[in-house]
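Example 3.
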Amino acid sequence: MVPVECYFVLSALLFFIGVYGFVTRRNLIAMLISVELVLNAVDINFAAINRLLYPNGMEGMFMTLFVIGVAAAESAVAIAIIINVYRNFKSDKVDAITNMKG
Amino acid sequence: MANIFMFCILAIVILGSALLCVTTKRIMRAATFMLFVLFGVAGIYFLLDYTFLGAAQISVYAGGVTMIYVFAIQLVSKQTLQGMVEKIKASRIIGNGLVVLASIIVVCLILVKTGFVTNFDAVADAEISMKEIGYALVGSEKYQYVLPFEFISLFLLACIIGGLVVARKEEKE
Amino acid sequence: MKMQHKTAGLIGTCSLGLVTILSYWTAFEYFTADRVNGIYQTIVPYNFTWLPLGNLHFDMGILLDPISVMMLIVISTVSLMVHIYSFGYMHGEKGFQRYYAFLSLFTMSMLGLVLATNIFQMYMFWELVGVSSYLLIGFYYPLKPAIAASKKAFIVTRFADMFFLIGILTFGYFTDSFSFSFAGDIVMGQGTTPFIEGNMAKAVTAGAFIIPTALTLMFIGGAGKSAMFPLHIWLPDAMEGPTPVSALIHAATMVVAGVFQIARMFPLWIEYAPQAMSIVVWVGVFTAFYAAAVACAQSDIKRVLAFSTISQIAFMMVALGVSLPGHHGAVLDDHAQLGYMAGMFHLFTHAMFKACLFLGAGCIIHAVHSNEMEKMGQLRNRLPITHWTFLISCLAIAGIPFFSGFSSKDEIITACMEYSPVVGYIMTGIAAMTAFYMFRLYYGIFWGTPCKENEHHEMHEPVVMWLPLVVLSVITVGVGVYTTLAGFLGWGGSFGSFVSASGQDYTIHFDTKVAATSTIIAILSICLATYIYKGEKQPIADRLYKTFPKLHRAAYKRFYQDEIWQYVTHRIIFRCVSTPIAWFDRHIVDGTFNFMAWGANEGGESLRSWQSGDVRQYAVWFITGSVALTLILLAL
């Protein structure tokens, strides 16, 4: 069986690749895509812990299930917002939104 | 043995696609690479004997969410699709890369140093049956998930309505 | 809507009339009450602790003892006369109501000063008196000279009061008390004059020079208020105020506050600082001489009277200063008695006749519309009442028998002779000069060369203006006659039976030799003045002027005292002390705060870039922070 640390390292790497993408990309949709990567990393973590450390329970699986659902909903709302932003700022770059700039 | 082998393949797929996803300049390619990542993660679930979860991942995530992203890209990134690419400053890449690298090292150290006691021998290599999942989803005993289930249905409704409200076209008076 | 002039005047005058009646009643009750051991008891009807500060405490209260009751009479009488007089003098002036308000303020402050139970209360009212003086001198504030004069008065007296305050604090620190003793039991000698009661022994063990130093510092404060040399510079300029103000404040009451202060602390001076009294004596002698010399050359009648006031107050100071510690065991015996009593008596009589002189001068100025003697002359037929009252007061100040000034001045000179014949002869000489310049003034106004412009002026004396003059002259003559006869015939019941250093009856006996000498010298001076100044032309005066032009000029310019003070303040204090301090304040003190503000500003500006509105940057910092926090938590 695969040692549990491997799953953790994999999920950690995926997580931070997502974070890197989030802070580097200027395109709003690309940032969202990176966030999806992060969420998936977390899902892997949940599932692995459940299966390999606590196989009697099902908590991890259900949490993963719900995270999938919530992630979908959140993507929908985020895209709605981005469409609104695109209409108002005429740009899909995150630099365009500078209203909060001090 | 086979597990490890599958795992390595899947890991390479996931990580490679993820890296390409965040470094590519073209947004459609990013979406495509994300699709591959999602497939990889579904594979991981299958490896862990979570067939329902894997199925849900493919149908919801890979099918639904990726479609949403593709639609969004079409709607929003007109200039990007036409080949105009974004330039990323080198200093940014290096700076962020360093931060991320440091963080990875810290986190991995923690994870590896912690002594996790694996317990996978307790249950046989069998998947969880659909019946059990069903009972758990709508049951109200301890360790059963009717409340989050109902909540998430409401939540999805709210998100749908919210998304519609936010994204509708302003009526010109 | 301002009050009507008449209403304001009536309110002021009637309340002051009430005060006068109450003062006389108090005096009557006090002096006819029973004496204990032949001494008037010190009565404290009212005293409360106002500000307790550990060991020390400031009280406020009322203290009645012979000198304070005497001062009550003086202040209320002169103030009432001035109130009545001002109805006529200030008639039609703008600010009439303000004038009466300030007069009441002044009277209140002066009364509070003399009734103080506590040196700090005295100091507080001292300052109030200074403020009232400032307000009244600067009454004609649209005029620049008035403003300059009021500022000068206030600043000079304030400067002197700094020393007073240091003296008070020194005293309080070493003796743990500010209150005048009125415990009734006698502490030293046989005096009942209250003085600052306190732990004298503690002060003496701390250092024998402490009490004399404190007392001398307090004397410097008094010297400022009483216009002793060199702090006298404000008094001649204070004549810019209205004449009744000059009569009240700068002749009769405020300027004697310094004398009163020494009288109040008299037992302390005698017991602990007899050597320091010589400072008082010599300052007084020099001031008297200087003021008399300057007064001989002034042409403004109010200035002459101002310098005369300075000179007379110096007489009072000398009188107090020549009181010697006794030789017969008791500290306060005949020698000390004489100086003290003479000083107080001269205060009383001087207040009366000097106020009369000033009010008379006010009548003259009111009629002639000018202060200068050139504009006057041959006024004796046109202002008869003023003429006679002025003459009576001049005779009093010159020291002619049967006028009050004779008794008081004579006794001062007697006391000086006992102290040291040198001082006695000097004071006699100054008395002669006093007679000379007063009669120079008298002849210059009422005889001498008439001024052409006055022929067409109509001059009249309203009732409200000559009535106070008459009252004051009557007092002068009455007191004079009584005390002259009492002194020669040995009657009791004169001033000494009321006010004396030991509290017991002190009958005045005139030393015939001194009395005769001073009278003859006074008469000689008057004859000299008559000879020089009486006629229509003054050839001798003109010849003297031509022979000694520089001396005359120096005397006219008051021997350049003002210029010296200006030099000291501008060149030395302003340039060498104030400017560096101002530089320090502007650059270093302000600079520190400006620098802090600049630093805060710059810090804020540099932090501004953190609020970039860039979500990605926020995320980076978030991740960095979380990882750092994890590391810290791991390390701990």
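The interface with chain B takes residues 620, 623-624, 627, 630-631, 634 of chain C (CB under 8 Å). Chain C has 24 helices and two strands.
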